[in-house]
Every structure is written in C-alpha cells, then in structure tokens.
C-alpha cells in the first residue's frame, strides 16, 4: 500500500498526500485527516487512538482487532469476501460521521 500511495494522487475532488509518521513522533499527525494503521503497530494502537481522537483523524486498518477494540475507526478485510467494519465508539471519539448509504454496506461494532 505504501508504494501505491507514495506520490500525491487526485481522486475526484480530493488530493491525497501521503507521508510516513513514526509512532515516536505522533505530533507530526497534526492536520492529518486520515491515517493508515498497519498491523505491525499493535503495541502502539492505544497511543494512535488517543492522538486520532484528539485530532479527529479517521483511522483505517486491515487489523480488525483494532476496530473491535475501539481503537481504529475502519477496518477492511480481504479474502474471498471483502468486509468493512466500523467501530461506533472509535468514530464517536474521533468525531467521525458516516452517511447512511455507507453504513448500510458495513458491519458496525
């Protein structure tokens, strides 16, 4: 995913700019709207969740455990059937709201 997002990209009306942020310097996330939380960051999920909720950052991960625990907002699983899981608690804490059409497509926990 990092290679795919290595450069800025335009998607519709949105400009997507990416950068890697070290967990030792979460203050660099200031002004960020979304963060991809990799599965290797399990031991830092509480710190990431705290920063995300303070700054209203949407957190996206492939680690559904992070979503079920209420530390990440959106989890996307792959395999025979792609599933999107949304943590209501993490979304509320980060002041993230989704439209009803999107919520009909996901599993809320």
The helix/strand order is EEEHEHEEHHE
Question: Strand share of the residues?
Answer: 15-25%
Radius of gyration (Å): 14 Å
Low-pLDDT regions:
none
Helix content: 10-25%
The first-to-last residue Cα distance is 25 Å
The total number of structural domains is 1
Strand order, sheet with most strands: 3-4-5-6-7
For the sheet with most strands, the description reads: 5 strands, mixed
Q: What is the SS-derived class?
A: alpha/beta
Shape estimate: globular
Tally of DSSP helical segments: 4
Number of strands: 7
Average pLDDT rating? 89
Describe this structure in words.
This protein is an alpha/beta fold. It has one domain. It is 24% helix and 22% strand. It contains four helices and seven strands. The chain has helices at 45-55, 64-68, 88-93, 100-103; strands at 9-11, 14-16, 34-37, 58-61, 74-77, 83-86, 107-108. The strands form two sheets. Strands 3-4-5-6-7 form a five-stranded mixed beta sheet. The chain has a two-stranded antiparallel ribbon with strand order 1-2. The longest helix is centred in the middle third of the chain and has 11 residues, at 45-55.
């Amino acid at each position: 995913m990092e290679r795919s997002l290595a450069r800025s990209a335009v998607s519709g009306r949105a400009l997507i700019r990416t950068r890697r942020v070290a967990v030792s310097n979460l203050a660099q996330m200031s002004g960020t709207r979304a963060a991809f939380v990799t599965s290797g960051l399990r031991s830092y999920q509480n710190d990431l969740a705290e920063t995300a909720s303070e700054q209203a950052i949407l957190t996206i991960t492939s680690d559904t455990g992070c979503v079920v625990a209420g530390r990440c907002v959106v989890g996307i699983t792959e395999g025979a059937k792609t599933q999107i899981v949304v943590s209501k608690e993490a979304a509320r804490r980060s002041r993230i709201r989704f439209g009803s059409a999107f919520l009909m497509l996901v599993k809320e926990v």
